[in-house]
Structure prediction request, 493 residues.
Amino acid sequence: MLHMARVGRVADAAQRFGLILMVGALLTALWVALIVFFSVQRTRLLDQASRDVRLVNTAVAQHAEGLFRAIETDLRTLDLWLRAHPDIDPLTDPAFTALVAEMSRSSRGLIDLRIVDRDGNLYTLPWVPGREPTNVGDRDYAQAHDGVRSPRAVFVGKPVQSRVTGEWSIPVSWRLEQPTGRFALVTCAVQLDRLFEIHDRLRYQPDGTISFVRRDGVLLSRTPFDPRFLGRDVRSVQNFADDVEAHDNGTFTSKGMMTDGIARFGTYERLDNVPVTVVVSRGLAEVMEPYNVRLRAVVGTSALVTLAVIAFTAFLHRSQRALRQAERDLQRLATTDELTGTCNRRAFSGVAEREFLRARRFDRPMSLLALDIDHFKLINDRHGHAVGDRVLKTCAERWMKLLREQDLLGRLGGEEFCVLLPETPPAVAMAVAERLRAATSSVPTGDGVLVTVSIGVSSLVPGDEGWADTLERADHALYVAKDEGRDQIALAG
Prediction:
């Protein structure tokens, strides 16, 4: 009896041990599977988030490139005007004042133009008689050109706070080739309050940031705005600084030691022809929050593993679908003009460059059409910007219906469009241009506005080193068409 009891206890112990061993093995397998699964999910989540941040970075860099390109164009234009009118005081000349006013209007308040004399006195443009100039001789953007004669380039200065209005801006200066009278520089101030509005709509909320960093590490702007950090050298605290010297783009992580202590990861992209790097970051906690919620839910409800897996799978599916949709939306934002649905300048440039190289390699024809809607400013002034936007959209829709599938229509800015015509010699390009011109002027838009368009036509020639050379000749032909009375077509020589 005692022996049987002992055998029973041994059997019970063996059964418990077997049960414990089996449950332990199952639990071990479950936790190992969970650890492996969540490790993989964490990596995939971070990879997907990195791709999303890269898309935002591309969109912001595209906007920044357009902004600095427009600034350089405006400053060069002022330089040319001053060289052409050496005996005229630009502060009082009505033509110069009108030119500056039009440039400021085109930027929608984002940039302000100024002029600096040899003594460092800065005059805001258009100049208001009786206003005292501000001396900026101690600013780096004024000192950067001292003793410099060549080569000339725009200089992006440290962000400054106006000594008059208290507003922050990024100064961009250009040395006059032949200083006129007492003036030595023309400058442009990028108003940071307007730039912050744009970047705040694009950044990841609530902890994402968008920054401009000068090539030497100086922080030019940061959204969300905090004036304490503007103008500081971030190379000592952001570990992307060393890498950015050698690469045009990349990724980085930051513990936020310089700012708010929030850990972030992000990407950077260096702009072409401007010593500025665009940095876009996203809060790590904000990215990882869905992952942490799922992990806590699975650990806390491991006894209900079947229901937990079903709920997790459904949630993961929705999350991935939302991420894919966000990726598609960001891709569209990076390549498409939102108003007209045509290619934006960045996407158009990429396709045009590839077509140029193909045409050059295989000795095939290629043509470009530069289109500019006539008197578009007058349409905006007379009918309002809403009507002007509809005019742009209507014209783009008409033109796309007349183009071949392989042709590409892009909006380069404002009312300026460009059409890429692969495998198209000059004679055919002129015929296409005539169809576009006739379709534009034949029927009024839905708002009853009769629109005409001037078109410049150019084709690939042996001297073109890039598609931009072909476009430049198309632009010159466009100016000829406008000078001849608009609603015209001109072929580049």
The longest strand covers residues 183-191. Confidence is low (pLDDT under 50) at residues 1-5. The radius of gyration is 30 Å. The chain is about 50% helix and 20% strand.
